[in-house]
Amino acid sequence: MRWHRSHTALIIAVVAFPGVALAYIGPGAGFALVSSFLTIAIAFVAAFFAFATLPVRAALRARRRRRSLRHARVKKTIVLGLDGLEPTICDDLLQRGLLPNLAKLRDAGTYRRLGTSMPALSPVAWSTFATGTDPSRHGIYDFIARDPRNYAPKLSSSEVYGEPRFLRMGPLRIPRGGSGVRGLRRSRTFWSILTDHGVFSSVLRVPITFPVEKIDGVMVAGMCVPDLRGSQGSFTFITSDPANAPHGGVTVAIPRAGGDVDIPGPPSPLAPTTLSARVSIRRLPGQGAERFELVAGKERVALAEGSYSPWVRLAFRAARGITLRGIARFLPVSLNGSIAVYMTPIQIDPERPAMPVSYPNVFSIHLAKLLGPFGTLGLLEDTSALNDGAIDEQGFLDQAYLYHAERCAMWSHSLERLRSGLAVCVFDISDRLQHMFFRYLETDHPANRGRDVTHHADAVEEMYRRMDTLVGDTMRHADGNTALFVISDHGFKSFRRGVNLNAWLEREGLLATRDGAGPGEYLSTIDWSRTRAYALGLGGIFLNLKGREHDGIVEASEVEALKQHIVAGLLALEDHGVRCIRRVVNVAKEWDGPYRNTGPDLLPGYEAGYRVSWDCAKGSVRPELFEDNTKRWSGDHCVDSEIVPGVLFSNLKLDDREARLIDMGPTVLELFGVETPAYMTGRSLVAR
Hints:
This protein is of the alpha+beta class and 688 residues long. The protein has a domain at 495-643. The protein has 19 helices and 37 strands. It is globular, with a radius of gyration of 25 Å.
């Protein structure tokens, strides 16, 4: 029986005793309450109505499905996404016989490059996958966008709308609704279209699926789910030596002998304060090596240096009867003499979600009760903690594989219960691990200076072999009536040198900062009255267009000449005689969708080894045009999309035309006998 049917009674129980519904505001900005007692009552009535009408709705759905799918070619379609799998590495390991399951798929069906999106960024690529459209139709160009009204950065994927309303009772503010959260990705997903035809879909951790959408099936949201603080992932470092705490994250001081600490959490929904949860790190008496335990509420967890704790539940009490629940893991970095404990970002507790991280909301509760707690943050693997020195490479690997095991269990649960319909799951570890360990593939990488270059030299290869094992586990669920696809959204290249586009624009006289203002961040020091173009994020360059940007100065008649000037200059840009930009895409000429004017005007495609610099991505204007990338984040895919295609493996013989990520949606629709909608610009890969 399908999950959304079999747990209707549990849904009723959940909405009768709900947690506080919350909405995400933005990076680091926290939450806003969007529920009310009326909302709770409506949810209860809706759940009761759904339960009462279930037999009739099930019969109508089955009838619609039979009528819609009479031309279907398969009963099931499985799409396994391995984010960032690089074709050249696959080729090498296949030739060496180290990827036997992918080799079986190649030999029985299809293996080829899979053209990615431009820019080749995960939120853009997976939005292209989901909608069968380019960025000018789905509207996602980067992780962040700029608000043309004030040039401020914002998440590209979701936003809060409306103004929250409160009933004031003394110092308290009781929420009465008035606002909510909505997704900003445009165009419909192919699983939404399948819903119209009665096809069940299980969609797990696909990027840019937050907030979750209502489908005929189940969904667990992926990239861009916030942590409980409302950020995209902020770790905590508990230390008895705050002066030597790592840069980044939240530092919490603790006595050298251990004791109680208050962990900062989300802003209070009832008052202008920050909620906290108390935990204790205690030395235990005994002989021999010192032992420690962590106490949080009624939970007691043993701590061991270099080993992650299980998930620990944290309670952030706002008022009597209103408590926000989170979970976190703790990694003792040092317990000998001084105390240093890394704590993961505080995840939304899937068993008691403060906001929906699944559809239906009860599905995350079901999974957590069945499989145990699991990470819900959109960007789970904490690359910032490794970059900032809060954890080392082994700590990062251990964390990544803990999350990987959770997703494997979730994926297996999905496949075991799929009798017909679609199952999609994206695994992130392949992307995150290559970001952080690509330096081991090049002995002369700038990020290797002063660092070990041997201890984890096989980390990337080991990850590929584990992905092959995952493929083998997935293949066991593909029978003769199943189409199976294993795909990556893009490939990977080394990231050796950063390019500060804002520095170049300043040298060209196209950007100016206020006198004495310094480099700033997020465009904060730019003099807009003298700036004609600027860069922000990983993707591209914006024109300061009059009538679009708040202080725009570029006239419409000047646009094309200005673009030509920038393109010619970037294509001629060299770093010690090496060309660093391969091509520049003029968005208005490349695409014709309704959102082609909402993102960057120009998209530089970098040569391998180059990428936009860290400072430029944050909208900073520093004088250095080029800089070595010495961070552990040593591999990337923010280059020309033509040189970082993904991979496509399938148990089907597909047609011989060039395969692109944008074609996956139309391909799945045709396999189920569903006509591709006119707005999709991809086309089916099914052999005629």
